[in-house]
Amino acid sequence: MENIRSRLRFGNKVEDVKLRKRKSQLYSKDDGNPLNNGALRVRIAVFCVLFRLINCFLVQTSFVPDEYWQSLEVSHRMVYNYGYLTWEWKAGIRGFSYPLVFAFLYKILHLIHHDTVYLLDTAKWTFFCHMCSWFTWFCCTRTLTNSTETTVTCLALYYFPLPGSKTHSSKKYLSLVSLAVVVRPTALIVWFPLLMYHFWQEDNKLRLITHNYLPIGVLAVLMSTGIDCVFYEKWTLVQYNFIKFNIFHGVADFYGSHPWHWYFTQGFAVVIGPHLPFFLHGCTLAFRRYKVFLAAVVWTLIIYSLLPHKEFRFIYPVLPFCMFFCGTSLAHLKAWRRPAATVLLVANLVPALYTGLIHQRGTLDVMSHLQTLCDVSSVPTHPLPDVLFLMPCHSTPFYSHVHCPIKMRFLECPPDLGEEGYIDEAERFYDDPLLWLRTSFPYKSSLPTHLVFFDVLEKDISVFLQGNNFMRTAELFHTQFPEGRVGGSIFIYERH
């Protein structure tokens, strides 16, 4: 350039030649990425946090027993003095680990492409699809390990070495994957195709194994085992116990089983919900670009289909992968994208609000009602409350929602560990409710003060209720879709 300028000097006058500025983004220092704007990043993060806080307070229903019996009840028992914090602040704090994930999803799309215009649309609509997913709304703020697994999976994707990514870091993403596996060992199922993809793409495979896979994996297992040994006060490898009881001994089958095709014919369609047409359309458009994500989705569904015990929440971690395809679909609709987005939003809003505010809320409402018995127990002249739950075991939370040491009991159903002719207490009760009650309470002095059960049981035990002066004191709505032993309402009977 200096040689050109020297040839263009006339006489003693020195003048630089003004070169035309190119408008092409190829020569621009600004890559056009809106997320380089710090203010925009802050706005996205703040919006996600506020949105999920609203989400927390608008989910007032129960989903599965594990959200209480594998989290809140355990922590309440361990730290009883802080029991109030466990429940009273749960709605405000349980969603803080999740909101920023959506900002990360938005950034991932920006970081794995070069075409800024296409990129912005795809990232924006992927972000929109994830935010309006009814199942994410229903599940993400619950105290389930599946929610944590999904959260950590999204964060790990940010550092995963995808083609074109500017933030890839093997150590960071593998550390997060290890954390997900420690939280829930089945996370390895979701990540197996991506780990193999990384291994296949890596030039120095031996270094990847010896410097990343093995050290990070071993360190995670050692730290997890150390923590578990401290709390269990004995040598415990939780990951091994998880596999032994659920896979080798088939304990999970004790809690129900489904046909092998259930995830393909029902489970996946329910979880992805109204996004399904956009997902299928996106698969045809972005198969090459996101084939590793699609492989992870299909692989996970196939592996989980081999296990008899199936639940919707088990495949929740694949939902973020699906949203890449949904966002691609909306970005390609062009003139129809806004009407399609409106339909998608409304179609998700209805099930999100219904399942969050109406469906299966009775088992939480009844605990709030029973909490008033704490005041009664403090009155010396009043008999101490004694509550018996005649419901399928673990139907309701327990002391984490009551906060006082009133006597409570429910029908137990510990898994069959190989005992011949084993029948749990709940099954014995439902085989003959009257016989069980008369056998368990032969004297009136041993009767509980309160009975809690679903309305479908009332007819079967009406003789016992009348003969022992039990009167209905409350009826609480539970669901509009009663099924089997789970009724539409919950009754509370008190002995007079």
TrEMBL record:
Q: Which InterPro entries match?
A: GPI_mannosylTrfase
* Localization of this protein: Endoplasmic reticulum membrane
* A GO term, aspect molecular function: alpha-1,2-mannosyltransferase activity
- Topology in the membrane? Multi-pass membrane protein
**EC number, UniProt record:** 2.4.1.-
One GO BP on record is: GPI anchor biosynthetic process
Q: What is its main location?
A: endoplasmic reticulum
User: What are the protein's UniProt keywords?
Assistant: Endoplasmic reticulum, Glycosyltransferase, Membrane, Transferase, Transmembrane, Transmembrane helix
Among Pfam families, the record links this protein to: Glyco_transf_22
Reported function: Alpha-1,2-mannosyltransferase that catalyzes the transfer of the third mannose, via an alpha-1,2 bond, from a dolichol-phosphate-mannose (Dol-P-Man) to an alpha-D-Man-(1->6)-2-PEtn-alpha-D-Man-(1->4)-alpha-D-GlcN-(1->6)-(1-radyl,2-acyl-sn-glycero-3-phospho)-2-acyl-inositol intermediate to generate an alpha-D-Man-(1->2)-alpha-D-Man-(1->6)-2-PEtn-alpha-D-Man-(1->4)-alpha-D-GlcN-(1->6)-(1-radyl,2-acyl-sn-glycero-3-phospho)-2-acyl-inositol (also termed H6) and participates in the nineth step of the glycosylphosphatidylinositol-anchor biosynthesis.
Q: Name the PANTHER family on file.
A: GLYCOSYLTRANSFERASE, GPI MANNOSYLTRANSFERASE 3
Family affiliation = Belongs to the glycosyltransferase 22 family.
Q: What is this protein called?
A: Mannosyltransferase
Q: Which organism is it from?
A: Parambassis ranga (Indian glassy fish)
